[in-house]
Known about the structure:
The chain is mostly helical. It is 45% helix and 8% strand. It has six helices and three strands. The longest helix has 14 residues, at 22-35. The chain starts with a helix and ends with a helix.
Amino acid sequence: MVRHHDLGPGDRGHTPLPLFHVNAQVVGLLATLLSGGSLAVEARFDRDGYWERVAAAAPTWLNAVPAVLAELAELPAPPEALTDELARACAERLARHKRPVEIRVAASLPVGPTGKVRRRQLRAGLAA
């Protein structure tokens, strides 16, 4: 994770996941420790005010799982300044062929009964 995303001491992650969640431990905490960066950890996930808390933490990367993304998709779009910052961070850190061409905020995500995002449906909906 650290090598793949080129994380370093200047990076700050943000996770809304509890530290007993394996994703928070491995992707959030372990990647942060190995990179020498910092990690903003929420006490518990709460979708209300999420984007404001993210903006206040000023992370360079976000840690989330499909269930969190599905919850966030039901909220109004994040502030434009946040998506602009995400685009800037991608431009600084990613090779040109890995950068997103555009950043779109979806009104909702198609999810299955377990909360897992249905990626094929998502792609089809965004292409329409």
